[in-house]
Amino acid sequence: MGNKDLEAMEDKELLIELVKSQRKDALGQRITAIATLGMFAALVIALVIIVPKVVATIDQVQTTITETENLVKQAEETMSGIDSMVANVDSLVVENTESVNKAMEDLNNIDFETLNQGIQDLSDVVEPLANFFNKFK
Fold first, then answer.
1. What is the C-alpha separation between 60 and 35, in angstroms, rounded?
2. In degrees to the nearest 10, what's the CA dihedral of 65, 67, 70, 75?
3. CB crowding 121-130: b at 16 or more within 10 Å, else e
4. In whole angstroms, what is the distance from residue 106 CA to residue 100 CA?
5. What are 32-63's pLDDT values in tens digits?
6. CA 18 to CA 11: how far, in whole Å?
7. 58 phi/psi in degrees, rounded to 5
8. What is the mean pLDDT of the chain?
9. Rg (Cα) of the chain, in Å, rounded?
10. What are the two backbone dihedrals, phi and then psi, of residue 106, each rounded to the nearest 5 degrees?
11. Cα 32 from chain centre
12. Chain center to CA of 17
């Protein structure tokens, strides 16, 4: 066996090793491609499921914010109505206080002695009439 035969065997072994290495690399590339494709499919499926839910959640948040703004406006309107109602109640209390004071003044101005005397005089007049009518019963 000469140098040529040795060199041919070495070249053959090198080619065999090179083919084996390329097969391993090709297998690794296939596995990587399949894994990448699987991850891409999983990502697409996740986006298809998640994005509509996120959009629906954002819509609900916007609706809730709008309803909250409306409730705040209603509360502000109610509070302004309460302010005017309190002002009306205050004026009513002032007016009624004046009327009560006037009534108390009028009660204080009554001459109870004269009133009692008038009641006694009326009783003196009515008593004989009552006795007269009681006799006919």
1. 37
2. -100
3. eeeeeeeeee
4. 10
5. 999 999 999 999 998 899 889 889 999 999 99
6. 10
7. -65, -40
8. 84
9. 55
10. -65, -40
11. 51
12. 73
